[in-house]
């Protein structure tokens, strides 16, 4: 938007509770910004609103408001052509969850390395037993390949580097090495993952990354390697992952995202002791709403002044 935009009333779509309560976000924005009104609304009740903050796309949005802000970094479910044709600005929340997801990814690496998830299973069964002495291993003497070196990937890589891990990366564009041993092009993915104890997926979901981690990539990984996915479920071919786990071609996986969410009760992943399942919660934190509020308020102020917003998608 080249000219200033009147934003008298901004709606927060009533999306539920994740990653924060809409009512809490409204209160945080109201406290930070007295120039406009923030209200919680359903998708079909935006007639008196100028913008909407949302978790997901709704078909009503392009015809109802001038600006839509997605509280996720991923926007693969948003029909960009429809927004562009309607002249509606779309922004996302890239950068908000970087530190949160980075911490969660490292927590998953630590759990897999030390076997904490296995001890938790034993606790539920009231079982006192140490793992075999050769099972736990030192994270600081391990290697990790981070696939996708945007802000999420940078957050994981920097934390892994601080723990003494050997860190490599994969990306589609030239990036600074961030203290990494090497950065590979995505066309070299099978070679890139071949020597790493961990492969962490932080790439966004795009037509090019859908099914990126297939049977060939999984076969290229070490048989003592772990796959950690904190990006999008569709980046991994889930059937191929299950087949690799069943065949003992991987040591295990930690998955925060899945092809179908919630993960169906019938999924074999629930029953596997070599898999850690978390409910798409890597970015969840008590201060997530504060981070979102700062971004939304900043963009509202910039748009009202006729300035370019942060994280513009369309």
CATH hierarchy: architecture of the largest domain: 3-Layer(aba) Sandwich
The succession of helices and strands, N to C, reads: EHEEHEHEHHEHEEHEHEHEEH
Taken together, the total number of domains comes to 2
- Count of separate DSSP helical elements: 10
Structural class: alpha/beta
Give the CATH H-level superfamily of the largest domain: NAD(P)-binding Rossmann-like Domain
- Beta-strand proportion: 15-25%
Rg over CA atoms: 21 Å
Q: If strands are numbered along the chain, what order do they take across the biggest sheet?
A: 8-7-6-9-10-11-12
- What's the CATH class of the largest domain, please? Alpha Beta
Termini separation:
10 Å
List the topology elements.
Elements: E1 9-13, H1 22-32, E2 37-41, E3 51-54, H2 61-64, E4 67-70, H3 80-86, E5 89-91, H4 98-114, H5 116-124, E6 143-147, H6 151-162, E7 166-171, E8 182-185, H7 189-193, E9 198-201, H8 215-220, E10 226-229, H9 238-246, E11 252-255, E12 275-277, H10 288-304
Parallel strand pairs: 1-2, 1-3, 3-4, 4-5, 6-7, 6-9, 7-8, 9-10, 10-11, 11-12
Helix pairs in contact: 1-10, 4-6
Description:
The protein has two domains: 9-96 and 285-304, NAD(P)-binding Rossmann-like Domain (Rossmann fold, 3-Layer(aba) Sandwich), CATH 3.40.50; 98-277, Rossmann fold (3-Layer(aba) Sandwich). The protein is 31% helix and 16% strand. It has ten helices and twelve strands. α3 (80-86) links the parallel β4 (67-70) and β5 (89-91). The longest helix has 17 residues, at 98-114. The protein starts with 8 loop residues before the first strand and ends in a 10-residue tail after the last helix. The mean pLDDT is 96. Keywords: NAD, Oxidoreductase. GO terms for molecular function: (2R)-2-hydroxyacid dehydrogenase (NADP+) activity; NAD binding. Residues 106-282 form the D-isomer specific 2-hydroxyacid dehydrogenase NAD-binding domain.
